[in-house]
Write a structure and sequence with these properties.
312 residues, globular, alpha+beta, 11 strands, 8-stranded antiparallel beta barrel
């Protein structure tokens, strides 16, 4: 009887230690990137700022389909893709994916005297730098650059601001709003509410200049898309395409690594050889596996510590 009690105590203690570890890991925040800096994902970080505002249901698209599938944000995505920062990324990256979270709804003056349509766009460009060695991929870090816009009104009443994430917690996400000159002209605080398929945004938008000066309440529904390039392989009969075949294999492994870290590893494995354009929207859509995402980030954390220990 005593041995059973001791065993129970040991098991309870072990569960408590595991729970405390999980809580401490999940509570860690990622570093907020300002200006033109590139963020290198710190393997010590488990919960990232983008996790807070993105939806857990994600549609995966190929780059060729963006114009047709996302016409409402085509202008903003083209602006990002043509920017100097992204052009530099494309030059040095072996592979990139683009996560786009779109929040659509309305803003209403705090005194309820006015209301306008609202659209928030948060884009994360993720990439791994070039390598010619398949085995080297596991040691390569995922880097990212973040961009965002807020659009209020439509047609001649439309006004667009760039947004820069300043802070986040499990409760809210805070942004600065900037005009075309890069001057901070307002702020936005979003309190996300996550559901199985969507994430709702509730919050406050404050503008100090422009057409919409004042304090506005924000209500929006957000959905997340991931845009990836099509990996092109040489035909089987081309036995001399060694370089192209090797490059395709590296890109496939990088793609797998990136999607695993997003909790979408099974989706990308199941659809590796498929033409996403020909799949229905439901077949292109997957729900993030939070357990997989958690485990992959823990694995990266352990590997990072091992690398640092080896350098000491």
């Amino acid at each position: 009887m005593k041995s059973k009690i001791k065993l129970s105590i040991v098991l309870l203690s072990l569960l408590l230690v595991i729970s405390l570890f999980a809580i401490s890991v999940i509570a860690q925040e990622d570093e907020i990137v300002n200006g033109d800096e590139i963020e290198v994902f710190d393997e010590e970080e488990i919960t990232e700022s983008t996790d807070m505002i993105s939806s857990d249901e994600v549609e995966v698209l190929e780059e060729e389909d963006t114009e047709e599938k996302l016409p409402e944000v085509e202008e903003e995505i083209n602006e990002i893709e043509n920017s100097g920062e992204v052009q530099d990324i494309e030059k040095k990256a072996i592979f990139t994916i683009t996560q786009v979270t779109i929040g659509e709804g309305f803003v209403m003056k705090s005194d309820k005297s006015d209301a306008e349509l609202f659209r928030g766009i948060w884009v994360v460009k993720r990439f791994i730098n070039k390598t010619t060695n398949l085995e080297d991929i596991e040691n390569k870090q995922i880097e990212s650059k973040k961009f965002g816009f807020v659009i209020i009104g439509i047609a001649e009443k439309k006004e667009k601001f760039k947004i820069e994430m300043k802070d986040f917690s499990e409760e809210n996400v805070k942004f600065d709003l900037k005009d075309n000159a890069g001057t901070v002209v307002g702020s936005m605080e979003i309190k996300p509410k996550k559901y199985a398929r969507i994430t709702l945004w509730f919050g406050t938008l404050i503008l100090n200049s422009g057409k919409y000066v004042g304090t506005w309440d924000v209500t929006a529904i957000s959905k997340t898309k991931i845009i990836k390039p099509k990996i092109r392989k040489p035909p089987v009969w081309n036995i001399f395409a060694f370089k192209q075949r090797s490059e395709a294999a590296i890109k496939e492994r990088v793609q797998e690594k990136m999607f695993e870290r997003e909790g979408l590893g099974e989706f990308i494995k199941e659809n590796r050889e498929k033409n996403l354009e020909k799949l229905s929207e439901s077949k292109r859509t997957a729900v993030i596996n939070k357990k997989e995402r958690f485990e992959k980030r823990i694995e990266a954390r352990v590997a990072a510590r091992a690398r640092r220990a080896g350098l000491q």
